[in-house]
Design a protein that fits this description.
heterotrimer; A mainly alpha (319); B mainly alpha (286); C alpha+beta (530); B: mainly alpha; C: alpha+beta; D-Maltodextrin-Binding Protein, domain 2; 4-stranded mixed beta sheet; 17 helices
């Protein structure tokens, strides 16, 4: 187990360096001069040149890249060119919003997904199952920006149930409420996804011998469903949650834009628009790191539950 | 059910017959959208890009869904939107498939350090916040059709490479491959004539599923204003334009929004069905 | 199994109901002495030497004071300076300062702070992008190059008197002093300026101070009890950061915002609601919208072509569609109400016959249509305009190809001269004709300085330099009118329009003034119903 963990962690380092390299190259190629953004209107050419030198923008590509890698290795993500604030500090400020959003979304999606999956599996082939299937296919297919706008329209425009912004302290006693609508929007997709998986793995488990035996023994349906069925059916769910994380990060760019939450997605989007390179690099790096760590954790949990898979994975990563 | 063995054989051959009702309907939907896309210039009542300040919000006859804030015919824009959505989706998938195929086949077939290195690159692209990468790419390449296709393909190929690799890995030790090798066939030949054809079912499945993702990505990029030239009628772009007018004219968002959802649904359902038929081992998951 | 099903169903329904109920908002702004407003992006820096955009200035103006300011009628009034004298030759300005002013951090305000703050802008270590504001001061050049450690033209005469000496007469100098770059900072805190901490919640002398701040979310301003004109009417201002117009609109209708800026997309809707119709205010703002050309390169180095494009555009038609008439067609770069504007026709209005003739003369016709790449901001509201313009020009065989770019890339492309034609606007820094001519058309200001059209005309350069030396207001206004006409003859732009900005205030607001220059608003007149 330890060897497996170490091997997995070691494999992430070249991946992270590669990610930095790709984002660095892309940013290098993007037209537009961050120095001009900082200088603002009516600044003279000399001022712009001075800012450019100050930011190190006149250095060649490889020098800038290695300087950055060195800095990152020592835990410094640099400072924002626009505000002069440390990138890590800003990310730490923004991350809680996105994490809160993702957590609420995950809770919603797990609860909704499992409940719908069970209902579907239990009523397999009946009308309710069909309905659930249609719902989940729709849920997977509707773009986040569309469902976000539709919810805004229904809840805010038609019903006037608009939770005030997540962030105004004077107005809102419980700021978690403001997250519900955006989190719901963000969670639908993975809820639908989960429902499908829970359904198929439930059906598979319910058809297995030990369940039939339990049923024949006359155990209560509840017991069978939860003790035997659900526990076994949940194993694949764990991996899906890990993979969903990246869709949360993508979704948060759009959800945070529509619902105007000050999270990491919007932060990154703004940074790209304003050419704030250190921030973009920092967010991409941290985002990838979180993705890798969560997937590693999921794999470990998975391997811990199921030793057969562990051996398989070790074989794979050795190959 | 009583079906004779011969009959069963026939049924297996024609995958079409094995589609459920939902599968057939979704195939019909895909065909329908494709027809609309191909014949868009003949079907649409007006030039989708003709603006007119005097026709702003007009509900004139001859404009079945009315006009938008620029006086453009909404119906014509939706019809032409099908064209762009399919075109971008298809082209970006082909590009992604090409990269994924090369990387996946090479990694799976040769194995060893090459496999390790290529899979780290794949890991890298999987771990990338993909939308951010697409945004960054569309910014450096400037807006345009090629940009959007490239930006979507660059984040989609990794998943394909991974699946193709694992399929290749299984096929590599198959008897006929080993046999071909002992007979002295070149690696390239084995890959193209023995492994690739056997990967076809799974490639078909991920391609169809990927179309759904690509259509969604295109819509998301257009929605964020980073897609193709916004004067071109794309569904995502139409939703983005309509957003600001949503309260007074919700239809501006709803029509193109429904179109996106419809196209994605039919590709998802059809891909799902295809997988059940062609690759039963992964049944039930999207 | 049925049992399980019904219980699960109950669970789902219960969850949905509970989540929707908790999602319901209580509009708890009532009975709180707070004015809730918003800006469209996080101010990247509240340092007066640094900030460059609208959103920074809106917050800065409430925290800091300058020596003088503009009131809501656009009249120059005293701020930290009680009174001032200008010497005969127009070069020396002596300000008498208020003696009853303290900073938010308790420090007393004296002439020392004025000298420090103005000198700090020019100090090369500050690296301020706003040095242009003060570069007319005597000794500014030496200071900016780091040759001296202080600016020789800025001197404290005694504790409450400051003298500023210019290199040569510069009539709009008082206007320059109203801009955010000239806000006064507490000199005793200068050691804490280094890091970013001071400017997170800066101390100024203004009517409000920053109590609390969450980035990209809100800035909570609290009334300054010790403000020299007395405590403002409203106790708190909550400056929310709301990037999406739609979100602001919804929040406004839920009464959690007290003011909303209206755009063509929502103006008509609010106008149609009796609750809001009479609360809408249209402010003629100081702006000019235009299509700029790179005047140095082909094809737009041909004045006939530039004029033709002016004559071929029916501005009224577009204004009617987009602004419902809340804009006036531009006949020059100076907007109405500013010195130098006199409203007489300048001969660039819609005239298709003459336009077609000039276009043909420049060598373009049906067989050889003019194709233009129009660079513009990738923004919905900009497309609304450029798409219409595209449609109008198409009628005359002028093919406009839109090239949307993100703001920073767009500026870069224009400054490098790559963009042959570009859709832009100019928002004034102060209400003076000089601000709508000198930065835009003097050849010294090519590129980022403001003259993005790369316009160069020696006669106009000379006239512009002479005009700032005229101290008589009326003569100067006439001079700018003359220059404006001369520039229009050359048609470096397609002059589009000057549009008003519209705001609507909510039911809680008892009194509010809207300023044509957003950054002059100190929030003193805002009153909330108790």
């Amino acid at each position: 187990m330890l060897e497996f963990t170490i091997r997995r962690i070691a494999a992430t380092i070249p991946v992270l360096i590669g990610i930095v390299f790709v984002i660095f190259s892309v940013l290098y190629l993007i037209p537009g001069d961050p120095a001009l953004t900082i200088a603002g209107p009516r600044a003279s050419q000399a001022t712009v040149e001075r800012i450019r030198t100050e930011m190190g923008l006149d250095q060649p590509f490889h020098i800038r890249f290695f300087t950055y890698i060195k800095k990152v290795a020592s835990g410094d993500l640099g400072t924002s060119v626009l505000t002069g604030r440390p990138v890590l500090k800003s990310i730490c400020e923004k991350l809680p919003y996105t994490l809160k959003l993702a957590c609420v979304a995950m809770i919603i999606s797990v609860v909704l997904g499992i409940v719908m999956g069970i209902i579907s599996a239990v009523t397999k082939g009946k009308l309710i199952d069909r309905l659930c299937t249609i719902l989940s296919v729709t849920g997977i297919s509707i773009p986040v920006f569309l469902s976000g706008l539709v919810f805004l329209y229904i809840f805010a425009v038609k019903l006037r149930w608009f939770p005030a912004s997540a962030s105004s302290p004077i107005m809102l006693k419980n700021p978690l409420m403001a997250f519900l609508l955006p989190a719901f929007t963000l969670g639908i997709r993975s809820a639908a996804f989960l429902a499908r998986i829970v359904r198929s793995s439930m059906i598979e488990v319910l058809n297995q011998d030990f369940i039939r035996t339990a049923r024949a023994k006359g155990l209560s349906p509840w017991r069978i469903l939860f003790r035997h069925g659900l526990f076994n059916a949940l194993v694949p769910v764990i991996t899906v949650i890990g993979l969903d994380l990246s869709s949360y990060l993508n979704g948060s760019v759009i959800v945070e834009t529509i619902f105007d939450l000050p999270g990491i997605g919007r932060f990154a989007m703004d940074a790209i628009l304003q050419r704030d390179y250190p921030i973009i690099q920092g967010v991409v790096l941290i985002g990838a790191l979180i993705f890798i760590i969560v997937n590693l954790l999921m794999d470990l949990i998975y391997a811990w539950i199921n030793p057969k898979i562990r051996d398989e994975m070790m074989g794979k990563s050795a190959a | 059910m009583n079906i004779s063995p011969e009959k069963k054989q026939v049924l297996k051959k024609t995958a079409l017959n094995r589609l459920t009702l939902a599968g057939k309907l979704s195939l019909l939907g895909i065909i329908l959208v494709t027809i609309v896309a191909i014949f868009a210039p003949y079907i649409s009542p007006h030039d989708p890009m003709e603006t007119n300040p005097e026709r702003r919000w007009a509900d004139a006859s001859g404009y079945p869904l009315g006009c938008d804030n620029l006086g453009q015919c909404i119906l014509s824009r939706i019809i032409h939107g099908a064209r762009l959505s399919l075109l971008i989706g298809f082209a970006s998938r082909i590009l992604a498939l090409l990269i994924g195929l090369i990387v996946g086949l090479t990694a799976g077939y040769f194995g060893g350090w090459l496999d390790w290195a290529l899979m780290r690159v794949v890991d890298m692209f999987l771990a990338f916040p993909s939308l951010l990468l697409s945004i960054a790419i569309s910014m450096f390449m400037g807006s345009g059709l090629g940009t959007v296709i490239f930006a979507i393909a660059i984040v989609g190929w990794a998943e394909m490479a991974r699946i193709i690799r694992s399929a290749t890995l299984e096929l590599r030790s198959a008897e006929y491959v080993v046999a071909a090798k002992t007979l002295g066939a070149t690696d390239l030949r084995i890959m193209l004539t023995h492994i690739l054809p056997n990967c076809m079912p799974i490639i078909t499945v991920i391609f169809t599923m990927g179309m759904a993702t690509a259509v969604l990505s295109e819509a998301s990029l257009s929605f964020l204003g980073l897609g193709v030239d916004p004067s071109l009628p794309t569904w995502g772009g139409m939703v983005a334009t309509g957003k600001d007018f949503m309260i007074s004219n919700p239809s501006l968002v709803i029509y193109p929004g429904l179109c996106i959802a419809f196209l994605v649904i039919v590709f998802n359902v059809f891909g799902d069905e295809l997988r059940d038929i062609l690759d039963p081992s992964r049944k039930g998951n999207f | 199994m049925k049992q399980i099903l019904s219980v699960s169903l109950f669970f789902v329904v219960a969850l949905l109901i509970s989540s929707s109920f908790t999602g319901c908002c209580s509009n708890s702004l009532d009975n709180i002495d707070v004015f809730s407003t918003y800006i469209s992006s996080e101010p990247s820096n509240l340092d007066p030497a640094r900030g460059v955009d609208v959103n920074e200035a809106v917050v800065q103006s409430r925290i800091f004071d300058g020596l003088v300011r503009y009131n809501e009628k656009m009249e120059l009034v005293p701020d930290l300076a009680e009174s001032w004298e200008i010497s005969e030759d127009g070069c020396e300005y002596i300000f008498k300062l208020r003696s009853n002013v303290t900073f938010h951090n308790g420090q007393k305000f004296t002439s020392k702070d004025v000298v420090f703050s103005l000198d700090r802008i020019l100090d090369p270590k500050t690296a301020s992008p706003r040095t242009w504001v003060l570069e007319k001061i005597d000794g500014a050049d030496e200071r900016m190059k780091g040759k001296t450690s202080e600016t020789s033209g800025i001197k404290a005469l005694d504790e409450y008197r400051v003298s500023i000496r210019l290199k040569e007469p510069f009539a709009p100098f008082m206007s320059l002093l109203t801009t955010p770059a000239c806000y006064i900072l507490p000199s005793e805190s200068k050691d804490s300026f280094k890091g970013s901490d001071f400017f997170d919640k800066p101390a100024g002398t203004g009517p409000f101070y920053v109590k609390d701040r969450v980035r990209d979310s809100y800035i909570h301003l609290v009334a300054n009890e010790k403000y020299f004109l007395g405590k403002p009417n409203v106790g708190n201002i909550l400056v929310r950061i709301i990037t999406e117009n739609l979100k602001a609109e919804l929040e406004f209708e839920c009464d959690s915002l007290d003011v909303l800026q209206l755009y063509p997309s929502n103006y008509e809707r609010f106008k149609a609601m009796p609750k809001y119709a009479d609360k809408i205010v249209d402010i003629p703002a100081l702006n000019t919208w235009y299509i700029g050309f790179n005047n140095q390169d082909a094809p737009f180095n041909d004045v006939r072509l530039r004029r033709a494009l002016n004559l071929l555009l029916d501005r009224e038609k577009i204004i009617k569609a987009i602004y419902s008439g809340r804009a006036v067609p531009a006949i020059g770069s100076i907007p109405p109400g500013i010195s130098g504007f006199n409203g007489k026709d300048t001969g660039i209005g819609f005239n298709p016959e003459e336009g077609k003739r000039l276009l043909a003369e420049a060598g373009y016709n049906e067989k050889n249509p003019l194709k233009i790449e129009l660079y513009q901001k990738a923004q919905q509201s900009a497309f609304e305009i450029t798409r219409f313009i595209q449609g109008e020009y198409k009628k005359y065989n002028v093919i406009l190809e839109l090239k949307p770019m993100e703001w920073s890339a767009l500026k870069d492309a224009i400054n490098k001269g790559e963009a042959k034609a570009f859709f832009m606007n100019w928002f004034g820094d102060y209400p003076d004709g000089e601000n709508f001519l000198y930065p835009l058309f003097h050849s010294k200001n090519w590129g980022s300085g403001g003259n993005r059209a790369r316009f160069k005309n020696e006669e106009i350069d000379k006239l512009l330099e002479e005009a700032v030396r005229i101290t008589d207001e009326k003569l100067r206004s006439e001079a700018y009118d003359r220059i404006n006409r001369k520039v229009v003859e050359q048609a470096p732009w397609v002059y589009l329009w000057h549009c008003s900005e519209s705001y609507v205030s909510g039911p809680r607001v008892e009194n509010i003034d809207f300023y044509p220059m957003f950054f002059c608003d100190k929030g003193l007149s805002i009153r909330i119903k108790k």
